[in-house]
Write a structure and sequence with these properties.
Elements: H1 2-13, H2 18-24, H3 29-37, H4 56-68, H5 76-90, H6 93-105, E1 110-113, E2 129-133, E3 136-147, E4 154-160, E5 170-176, E6 183-188, E7 199-210, H7 222-258, E8 260-261, E9 264-265, H8 270-298, H9 304-329, H10 339-347, H11 357-366
Parallel strand pairs: 1-4
Antiparallel strand pairs: 2-3, 3-7, 4-5, 6-7, 8-9
Length: 368
C-alpha cells in the first residue's frame, strides 16, 4: 500500500515534471516537503523522532516505486535510507531530536559527503580535515559527486579529525549549511544520466562546526560507522537495480508485441523471444536474491560480504538486461523520449557509486 501511495505521488509530482527537473538539474524544494507530508520520507525512523515508525522494508518500498517509474531526480535513497540512519544509529538523543524530525518532514534535505576529487572508494585516503579548536571543529576540504548536494541543509561529512591516525582518525560530522560561513556549493555536475538528480561539488574553507555535531560522541569512530552502514546503502542500490530491470523487461515485452517487422511483430521472431526469455530469467533470479537479502537485513543477519555480492551482481544484471532491451527497441531505444533510453542512461552509474563493482569483488574475495 505504501508503494502504491509513493507511486502515485512520484507520478504526479516528480515524473510529470521530468523535463523541468532535468533542465534545472534538481527538483524543487517543495517536492521534498510534499513527500514528507505524505509520510514518504524516513519511513523506518521511529515515530518518536518524527519518522514513520516502520521497518527498513518500508523505505525500500518507496525506493522501489521510484525505480519502477524510472525516476532518479528525487534523492530519496540518500536522504531516508542513508543520512537518517547515520543519525539514528550513531547520534546522541539530542542530535536525533534536533535533526530527524526535520528530515522526516522534508524541512531539511540530507546528503552524505564522502567522495573527494582525488578519490572515491578508498575512504582511508580522504584529505578533508576537521581539527578541534575549542568548542568547534574547523573544516577544510572539498567533496564531489555529492547526491542532494545543491539543496542539502544537512550534510553528514566524512573528515579526518586526526590526520596522522589513518582510519582511526576518521570521524563523521553533521554540518548544517544554513548561515554557514566558508561553506560553498560548487556546480551541479553534468552527468551522462540521472539528469534531474542534484549531484554537486562542495567546498569547506575554514567552516566552523559545533563540537557537539560529532556523531558518536568521540573522535575516530567514523570509518567503522561508514563500514556498518555501507551494507544498507548497497541494499538500496540493489533494490533500485532489480526494480529498473523488471521495468525495462515489462516495457520491452509490450513493445515487442506491438512493433511490426517483416510482416509480423518483433515478438513473433524467435530471436526476440529467446533474448527476452533470458532477460526474464535474469530478472527473476535477481528478485529472489534481493528478497533474500532484504529478509536477512530485517532480522540483522545480512553480512557485508553478501551485501557486496548483491550490489555488484544485481547492478550487473540491470545493465545487461537494459542494454538488451534497448537493442529490441532499435532506433527508438536510443531516443530519450522513450523511457528505455533514460533507463539506459541512468543504469550505468549503478556499477560505480556505493563502492565500485571492482571494489565489491575485492571485498568478497577477502572472505574466501
Amino acid at each position: 500500500m505504501l508503494g502504491e501511495v509513493a507511486g502515485k505521488f512520484l507520478t504526479n509530482e516528480v515524473v510529470a515534471h521530468r523535463e523541468r527537473w532535468e533542465a534545472q538539474q534538481h527538483v524543487d524544494r517543495e517536492v521534498w516537503r510534499k513527500a514528507g507530508g505524505l509520510g514518504l520520507l524516513c519511513c523506518s525512523v521511529p515515530a518518536e523522532y518524527g519518522g514513520g515508525g516502520g521497518t527498513f522494508a518500508h523505505d525500500l518500498a518507496v525506493i522501489e516505486a521510484q525505480a519502477t517509474l524510472g525516476d532518479s531526480a528525487l534523492g530519496l535513497g540518500v536522504h531516508s535510507a542513508i543520512v537518517a540512519h547515520y543519525i539514528l544509529a550513531y547520534g546522541t538523543e539530542k542530535q536525533r531530536r534536533r535533526w530527524l524530525p526535520k528530515l522526516a518532514t522534508g524541512e531539511m534535505v540530507g546528503a552524505v559527503a564522502m567522495t573527494e576529487p582525488s578519490g572515491g572508494s578508498d575512504l582511508k585516503a580522504i584529505k578533508t580535515k576537521a581539527l578541534r579548536e575549542g568548542d568547534t571543529y574547523v573544516v577544510d576540504g572539498a567533496k564531489t559527486f555529492i547526491s542532494n548536494g545543491h539543496l542539502a541543509d544537512l550534510i553528514v561529512l566524512v573528515a579526518k579529525t586526526n590526520p596522522a591516525a589513518g582510519t582511526k582518525g576518521i570521524s563523521l560530522l553533521v554540518v548544517e549549511t544554513e548561515d554557514c560561513p566558508g561553506f560553498v556549493r560548487g556546480r551541479i555536475l553534468d552527468k551522462v544520466g540521472q539528469h534531474g538528480a542534484d549531484t554537486s561539488e562542495l567546498f569547506f574553507e575554514g567552516v566552523r562546526v559545533p563540537a557537539d555535531h560529532l556523531l558518536g560522541g568521540s573522535e575516530g569512530q567514523g570509518f567503522g560507522q561508514l563500514m556498518s552502514q555501507l551494507a544498507q546503502e548497497r541494499l538500496v542500490i540493489g533494490t533500485a537495480a532489480v526494480a529498473m530491470t523488471e521495468a525495462a523487461l515489462t516495457m520491452t515485452v509490450e513493445y515487442a508485441k506491438s512493433r511490426a517487422a517483416f510482416g509480423q511483430t518483433l515478438w513473433d521472431l524467435q530471436h526476440t523471444k529467446f533474448a527476452l526469455a533470458e532477460c526474464a530469467t535474469q530478472a527473476h533470479a535477481a528478485r529472489v536474491f534481493l528478497d533474500s537479502c532484504i529478509e536477512r537485513h530485517l532480522v540483522g543477519t545480512l553480512d557485508t560480504t553478501t551485501a557486496a555480492m548483491a550490489k555488484w551482481w544485481l547492478t550487473e544484471q540491470q545493465c545487461q538486461v537494459v542494454d538488451r532491451c534497448v537493442q529490441v527497441f532499435g532506433g527508438y531505444g536510443y531516443m530519450r523520449e522513450y523511457p528505455i533510453a533514460r533507463l539506459y542512461e541512468d543504469s550505468r552509474v549503478q556499477k560505480i557509486y556505493g563502492g565500485s563493482n571492482e571494489v565489491m569483488k575485492d571485498l568478497i574475495a577477502r572472505s574466501l
